[in-house]
Amino acid sequence: MTLAHTAEAPGEDAPTLLVKIFGKDRPGLTAGLLRTLAGFAVDVVDLEQVVTRGRITLCALVTAPGQGQGQATGTEGELRATVHTWAESVGLQAEIISGTGDNPARGVGRSHVTVLGNPLTAEVTAAIAARITAAGGNIDRINRLAKYPVTAVEFDVSGVPTEQLRTELATEAAARSVDVAVVASGLQRRAPRLVVMDVDSTLIRDEVIELFAAHAGCEEQVAAVTAAAMRGELDFEESLHARVALLAGLDESVVDKVRAEVTLTPGARTLIRTLKRLGCQVGVVSGGFTQVTDGLQEHLGLDFAAANTLEIVEGKLTGRVTGPVVDRPGKARLLRAFAARAGVPLSRTVAIGDGANDLDMLNAAGLGVAFNAKPLVREAAHTAVTVPFLDTVLYLLGITREEVEAADAQG
Predict the structure, then answer these.
(1) Three-class SS of residue 155?
(2) Is 198 tagged catalytic?
(3) Residue 106: how many CB atoms within 10 A of its CB?
(4) What does residue 68 show for φ and ψ, rounded to 5 degrees?
(5) How far is CA 9 from CA 16, 102, 326, 384, 408, in A?
(6) Among 329, 231, 317, 249, which Cα is nearest to 287's?
(7) Which of 253, 239, 233 is nearest to 209 (CA)?
(8) Which residues contact 16 (CB under 8 A, 6 or more apart)?
(9) Is 20 helix (H, G, I), strand (E, B) or coil?
(10) What whole-number distance in Å separates Cα of residue 87 and Cα of residue 17?
(11) Residue 333 and residue 141: Cα distance in Å, rounded?
(12) Which residues lie closer than 8 Å to 110 by C-beta, 6 or more apart?
């Protein structure tokens, strides 16, 4: 879709014409319509075009002949006849509607609503649109951001405050099992950001401590404690010390083995690469261990990384961690510290995580994204993503799949 306002808006009572053509798309149609209109010395007030599956809809809002800046060279009737004749000559249909003035101004409280689905059904989309209307919002435009690996569409909405709309749509999204994100519109939307991610089960598909535990022969025991901690049923710091204690005596050579076993989440490289190309800074905070996150930072070119550190003495894991524990409050503190170092206000930060120990960080960020998260986290975060592709977070920031692919093609 392309939009343009190319002339000073006419007065509310000034005659205008909405010229609409539609049919099979081909090169040169936009230029052809505008050349036809140019013969009547009209001014273009607004211009909008959309092409869907090879079918074009092109609308031009123009001043009536004699109302623009140029000298009128024909009547409205002649303009109508000429446009219809041109449209028929290129196999299109035309509709011309008389009226006055420009488009009404958009309402206050402007937001972008991104809806993700795999698939995105008509029923779900209708429910979201109806909820926007019920909240007092108006859908001004709709644009598709991506068709794979999920379908992502973006609604430009006005007339309702962003926070109110986010609350309304969160309820609908949960009921419909669809992912919906609501962010405020404005100049800063695509300004450089800081994006901070959890590591285990977010940036990577694994729980690092369980990888270590597998080498110590206590994987099931550790996994059960980890799951309870991520659900918020156990104090994270206490559970961390209990799990790490089971690793005592492991040879430090296991660190290299665990690093080799780590698997990135699908879309992780694309997400980070695209964010960096946009001038964003990217970091990770983890309740896991620097023995793994340091390697990820170097390998992925991350700007920031923080995690716990396993104590190693004389080539053996002691079953303890050194330094302050990166727990739930610690992750939020690190987000703020990274933002200060990056020179980015908290309102321009994005946090992504899946567990209860991520909640403070998600709530502190300008946008908190629960990624394939536990129910407790999905309910508390600003928005949730339930598809297994980390790069879908890009769509929540208004970045299209075409833009990602174009950037990749340029290297």
Answers:
(1) strand
(2) yes
(3) 15
(4) -90, -165
(5) 10, 6, 56, 41, 40
(6) 329
(7) 239
(8) 10, 45, 61, 62, 63, 64, 67, 98, 99, 100, 101, 102
(9) strand
(10) 16
(11) 38
(12) 156, 157, 158, 162, 184, 185, 186
Cα–Cα distance between 374 and 390 in angstroms, integer?
A: 16
Q: Write down the residue that tokens 């000298």 correspond to.
A: 71
- Residues 391, 404: contact at Cβ < 8 Å? yes
Q: How far apart are the first and last CA of the chain?
A: 26
Tokens 């990274």 correspond to 338
Pairing of strands 349-353, 194-197: parallel
Write down the H helix ranges in 58-159.
76-89, 122-134
Annotated catalytic residue: which of 46, 102, 179, 200?
Answer: 200
Eight-class DSSP state of 235:
-
To the query of whether residue 235 is one of the catalytic residues in this protein, the response is no
Q: What is the pLDDT along the chain (411 residues), one digit of tens a residue?
A: 444 444 455 677 889 999 999 999 999 999 999 999 999 989 999 999 999 999 999 999 999 997 766 666 789 999 999 999 999 999 999 999 999 988 877 777 899 999 999 899 999 999 999 999 999 999 999 999 999 889 999 999 999 999 999 999 988 988 888 899 998 887 566 667 999 999 999 999 999 999 999 999 999 999 888 888 888 888 889 999 999 999 999 999 999 999 999 999 999 999 999 999 989 999 999 999 999 999 999 999 999 999 999 999 999 999 999 999 999 999 999 999 999 999 999 999 999 999 999 999 999 999 999 999 988 898 888 899 999 999 999 999 889 999 898 878 876
Total residues found in the chain within this entry: 411
10 Å Cβ neighbour count for 310?
25
For residue 271, give the nearest of 174, 379, 401 by alpha carbon: 401
Q: Which of 179, 198, 206, 354 is catalytic?
A: 198
Strands 55-63 and 15-24: antiparallel
Per-residue tokens: 350:
């994005």
Residue 154, classified by CB atoms within 10 Å of its CB into exposed (0-12), middle (13-18) or buried (19+), is buried
